[in-house]
Amino acid sequence: MATGSKDLMPKALREFDDARLDEELGKAKQELFNLRFQSATGQLENNSRLRAVRKDIARLYTEMRERELGIGQAPTDESPSKVS
User: Fold this and answer.
1) What is the CA radius of gyration of the chain?
2) Cβ partners under 8 Å of residue 61, min gap 6
3) If you ran DSSP here, which 8-state letter would residue 6 be given?
4) This model's pTM is above 0.70
5) What values do phi and psi take at 30, rounded to 5?
6) What is the pLDDT of residues 36-83, one digit of tens each?
7) Where are the chain's structural domains?
8) Which residues, other chains included, contact 62 with Cβ-Cβ below 8 Å and sequence gap of 6+?
9) Which DSSP string do the residues of 7-39 spell out, in sequence order?
């Protein structure tokens, strides 16, 4: 079973454009910073959230790298046409 956020699963990430990936990466990094700060001060209640956010960040970087290498493609606005 995969851990992480339900809205950042690989299938959903493939539908995001590059700007949205950058935005989600920024949010995830900020959340990780906040969680690590809470952990250091003893205020963190859910330790498993740290792992989930780290996995989300890795998933975002993987999708970005795949697009850079041409393995995964950013979604286009054009809908595929049917060939009859």
Assistant:
1) 16
2) 25
3) G
4) yes
5) -65, -40
6) 999 999 999 999 999 999 999 999 999 999 999 998 776 766 655 555
7) 10-69
8) none
9) GGSHHHHHHS-HHHHHHHHHHHHHHHHHHHHHH
pLDDT at 45: 93
Please give the structure tokens belonging to residue 23: 């935005």
Residue with token string 């990094």: 29
C-alpha 20, offset from chain centre: 10
CB of 67 closer than 8 Å to CB of 14: no
- In angstroms, the CA 28 to CA 32 distance is 6
**Rounded Cα–Cα distance for residues 36 and 79 (Å):** 42
Q: How far apart are alpha carbons 37 and 12 in whole angstroms?
A: 29
49, 35 Cβ separation under 8 angstroms = yes
CATH topology of domain 10-69: Helix Hairpins (1.10.287)
